[in-house]
Queue: 4 jobs
Job 1
Amino acid sequence: MSEPKIILTDTATPEELAVISDGLRDYNTSQAGYDDYKRLAIFVTDPDSGAIVGGIYGGSYMGQMSIERVYLPENLRRDRLGSRLIKMAEEEARRRGCSRLTLNTMEIQAQGFYLKLGFETAAALTCDPPGINRYVMTKKL
């Protein structure tokens, strides 16, 4: 049998990436005995056009809700809109039986915002110049 080839790329297709994600999910399911992954999206829409202008997306899996992305345009970063979005994600996580909420942020983003909402910094990942430090944030529900 020949040695497998290893290919590095920055142009992988969704189908190619699915081989990895589906394979890992199948393995996890075989080990855990269940698969309860469910996506999460909370959208903020323009009141006039109905267009999505921001929000949250992520998913829940085996007891944990993971927030992958949070975005609000600068003109909507007021009136506790971001806090309301996180609170909605927390409530949905509890409804799904999750005991923890996790996310990643960078020093140029919103670590202080998440700390005010009761998150803890589980890990600080320093990235010496010219990089930007990252933080793994978690909140027990």
Job 2
Amino acid sequence: MHGIFLTEFKKYVKATRGDEAWDAIRAKAGLDSRAYVPIQQYPDKEAAALVAATSAIDGATATQILENYGRFIVADLLTLYQGLLRPDWRSLELIEHAPEMIDRAKRLNGLAIGLPELSVERANPVRLLVRYESPRKLCSVGKGMLRGIGDYFGEALEVTEDACMLEGKPFCRVGVSMSAAVAAA
């Protein structure tokens, strides 16, 4: 697991649950002495333990936590990778070009593995079909990020799913549309 995932998770926990919550979650996960830095790799089981501990402490499901986390991290990631964005892009354009942006980020950061396989197809002017595949099955983070991109641009996006790895499918397929009110404007 990339350290940025864990450092952003710490930031998410502190922003949504308070500064003291991070220490409680790390202790519950058996990681109370563990510190994370963005440029390191960490065992995936540590991220899973932190999410499970968060769930045990506050009662939210892992899916809810991961989706909310995905929504939360968008602004930081778009700031970090601002140089990869075109100034005329809005939500759908950003999502449509996400696979190329991920490839460029991999090259910039020397990441050979670990990021999901993503493809995007434009179904019509206001709808995209996103295919996500990863052995980590963090599709909930991805769905949250799609909503977070809409938040970032102040656009209401409808996110629907018709296939999910968590339900035994080989990949996730998600539709992303501008809400009817936004698309009509």
Job 3
Amino acid sequence: MTVTGCLIVLTGCSVTTPSGTASVIEGGDLKEIGLAAYPGAQPRNDAAADNKNASLAVSTPLFGLKIASAKFQTEDSADKVLAFYRKEMSNYGDVVADHKEELKVGPDDDLRIVAVKPSGKGTEFTLVYAWVAEREPQ
């Protein structure tokens, strides 16, 4: 089972053990991700179980991890979406283009990613925020 599959199975639950706590919440939050919504984009709510938006938080005495994601669609081109998010992400540092379909900003322990995919007459895109530290996530 993939990590995404695990997240979906556990969506909406919290597990606490002596080693720490893991929580998965359905629905990615743009405030959590730290990026603005693309103008006119609509949330993508695919019927497939592995395409739901979710947030994951893990807290242990040794480290913290937080991942939030949200999927959208727009009638605009992938180039327009990438141009918007290149400017939006520049608030966090130097934006790196990985191939022509993905933007990244930040170090590995505080990373934001925008991945785009042309779809029909428009574009599907996913926003991701991943944070890791030697303390509990905020």
Job 4
Amino acid sequence: MHIAIARFPAVPAEHDKDFRDWFAWSNDQLRGMVGLRGRRLLRAPDGSYTALVEHDSASAFAAMLKAEAVSMIHRGLGPILNDRRQAMSYDVLVDFPTPDGCRCDGNETCGCEGAAAEPGLRLVSAGAVPTAESCAGDDVGRP
């Protein structure tokens, strides 16, 4: 997985709603983009905004940046902010597996997404922590 983190400059108070509306609109423009896993707007206690963008890979992120939709999105941000955002991107090296990222194949083999995920894990119930049990008898797909 590849993650980009963008820190936005201070949003003028009179543009705060416009900024949040722009972000929601931009999510709609990117929906269905190949390799895009998620895009979130975060607000810190000091009122500053950061975007967290998740992709399948660095190449999927690079391809998204070349899309016309991204150019249009960036143009829409210009009238709202007085400065440019600062962005960094990262490759995920170690991940914490979640129930949504774990799957069984119906042949007593289960696995969870993430570099730290242990093969052969079984979810004991929705939202529960995976335990090291066999997944024998599970249906194909979700445990």
